[in-house]
Amino acid sequence: MNQFESRGHLLTEQSNPNSEDLDRLDALGLVDLFCREDARTVEAVAASREAIARAIDLTTDALRRGGRLFYVGAGTSGRLGVLDAAECPPTFCTPPELVQGIIAGGRDALVRSSEALEDRSEDGEAAIAQRNIGETDVVVGITAGGTTPYVCGAIAEARRRHATTVFIACVPVEQVAIDADADIRLLVGPEVLAGSTRLKAGTATKLVLNILSTSVMVRLGKVFRNRMVDVSVTNSKLRDRAIRTIVDLTELSREAAAHLLDRCQNHVKLALLVHWSGLAIDDARSLLDRHRGQLRAALDSATEVR
Question: I need a labelling partner for 97 at 20 to 30 A (CA). Which of 14, 127, 168, 230 fits?
Fold first, then answer.
């Protein structure tokens, strides 16, 4: 019997002794129990800090070389990957193809359970091949129990294509080993509801994806100080955020900040460089391009020239 045929030994499938009386608790008791158990997710993420940092470095390097980032998962894990990928364009003004989510079963699986589709490793391999994933790309396999054939097949195919691979699971290496360039293990322990990995495992995974994508974008120059300076101004909320960012960083009036943003065609980073450097818009845009979108480096360069 192989690891895919019996999963009862996995940490994610065990019964949690702290929730043996789950069905006897009142509402307040349930809330308190979940809060105590969920506190373990942050501890688990912190314990994997070195592996997460390695994934950040590897992904940043790949994207600087023109690569793409792919999340691959099934069920909850797949949905979390798709969610993180979908949030990158509005937050960091990235093209939709830069960060992509791949879920077993495709779009339908986002709103309807299709768990049986996770059992075909060849489908995971095909998903990698269909996207022409290569050596400059990064594939992050997400599987709480570590054994999902769809994800393992995707990771194996990605390695065959010399892509960078990251593995995220909530079981120890001793239970499920895999070859990956960065191996992140989030040991949150058994779930409050035995085997329901949408709970602590899902929460810990979401935390890691938040850290990974945000940190990579920081390293790629999408952030100045702690502000979103590559925000995509696509609605009134985001326009307000863009204007407030300029006001906070420059102390311009709101009216002046809005005018500057309009002149720079809603590009916050460009607006800031124009304001601080005194350069013409086209010159500031060229300077940003030369520094690969790094506002701080462009500012330093403009200061040296002056």
Answer: 168
Residue 140 forms part of a structural domain = yes
Q: Measure the CA–CA gap between 228 and 246, rounded to whole angstroms.
A: 10
Q: What is the spatial distance between Cα 253 and Cα 169, in angstroms, rounded to a whole number?
A: 48
Residue positions annotated with a catalytic role: 87, 118
The pair of three-digit structure tokens given for residue 65, joined into one six-digit string: 């070389």
Q: What is the pLDDT of residues 73-91, one digit of tens each?
A: 999 999 999 999 999 998 9
pTM: 0.91
Q: What is the C-alpha radius of gyration for the chain, rounded to an integer number of angstroms?
A: 22
Q: Long-range contacts: 106-113, Cβ < 8 Å, 24+? A: 109/74, 109/75, 109/78, 109/79, 110/79, 110/82, 113/75
Which one of 173, 192, 219 terminates a domain? 219
**171 and 238 share one domain:** no
What residue numbers bound the domain in which 247 lies?
Answer: 223-305
Angstrom distance (rounded) from CA 233 to CA 293: 17
Q: Are residues 181 and 279 in the same domain?
A: no
pLDDT tens for each residue of 89-140: 989 989 999 999 999 999 888 887 766 677 789 999 999 999 999 999 999 9
Number of domains in the chain: 2
